[in-house]
Design a protein that fits this description.
Elements lengths: L2 H21 L3 H15 L1 H10 L2 H8 L9 H5 L2 H10 L9 H11 L6 H9 L4 H8 L4 H10 L14 H6 L17 H11 L1 H19 L4 H6 L7 H4 L7 H6 L5
Length: 256
């Protein structure tokens, strides 16, 4: 048997093992198996395996990001793979968006990464702007202020929202903040990068965010929407690797 065939069989066996561990709820074990491959065969081997894993399995690993340690998967996942994972994260029914923000920040702002490549990949997918709107959900008023004034301080904002036409007319306004002032590797830097480097996506995201805010004000918030979707599961069941949403298992084809 050729070395290439042996390597392929080894990778297929690892993919099967990883998926089995994820299905059993052992996310830590699945990540450890992937780390062992990188240690034994190098980052390029792990990247090949990640390309063959379904988005739901990559998501199961990277959404459990622990900022106390570096995750080799978070460090190596490609923009396209990450984008597919981000747009299906909502199936976890995490109303706090804690996992979404954690994994987005850890990947997009990782050392040596180009945030625009990741944001563009997310924006190119159906559901991408919605995922980004979910990321900013708890910062809606400050993101609106930023869209209007170029600052995140709501005190200077008069509360009047720009129309869609005004948003596009204002899309290429000169920044009032230096990027260093918002380099927090969190939502401020994300908003700054979106507005000044991906303005169309920023506006699309903001319009979705407004729609979500209006729905919430009308008593038609995400809680009500999620209750109607039996394919989703409570976050408590998915945190700490206890389960993956049934909707993901149904929607995502296995790589094997």
């Amino acid at each position: 048997m050729h070395v290439k065939d042996i390597t392929m069989n080894t990778h297929l066996a690892l993919i099967t093992k990883t998926q089995s561990l994820i299905a059993a709820g052992d996310i830590v074990g699945a990540e450890s198996a992937l780390v062992e491959l990188a240690d034994a065969e190098g980052d390029s081997a792990l990247m090949l395996v990640l390309e063959q894993l379904p988005a739901k399995d990559i998501l199961a690993v990277i959404r459990e990001y622990d900022n106390s340690k570096e995750s080799v998967v978070n460090l190596l996942v490609s923009p396209e793979q990450f984008a597919r994972a981000v747009v299906i994260e909502k199936q976890y029914k995490d109303l706090s968006r804690t996992h979404l923000r954690g994994m987005v920040n850890s990947v997009i702002f990782r050392s040596g990464a180009n945030p625009v490549e990741f944001l563009t990949a997310i924006g190119d997918l159906e559901g991408g702007s919605e995922a980004l709107a979910d990321y900013f959900a708890e910062r809606w008023s400050r993101v609106e202020a930023f869209a209007r004034t170029g600052l995140f301080d709501t005190v200077e904002d008069d509360g009047e929202m720009l129309t869609e036409t005004e948003l596009y007319a204002n899309a290429y306004a000169k920044p009032r903040l230096d990027e260093d002032e918002v380099a927090d590797q969190d939502w401020m830097q994300m908003a700054f990068t979106l507005r000044y480097e991906c303005p169309d996506l920023f506006i699309e995201m903001l319009l979705v965010l407004r729609a979500k805010a209006r729905a919430h004000d009308m008593g038609r918030g995400e809680e009500a929407e999620l209750e109607e979707d039996d394919g989703k599961v409570e976050t408590g069941d998915t945190d700490r690797g206890k389960a993956t949403p049934a909707a993901l298992d149904a929607d995502e084809e296995s790589a094997i």
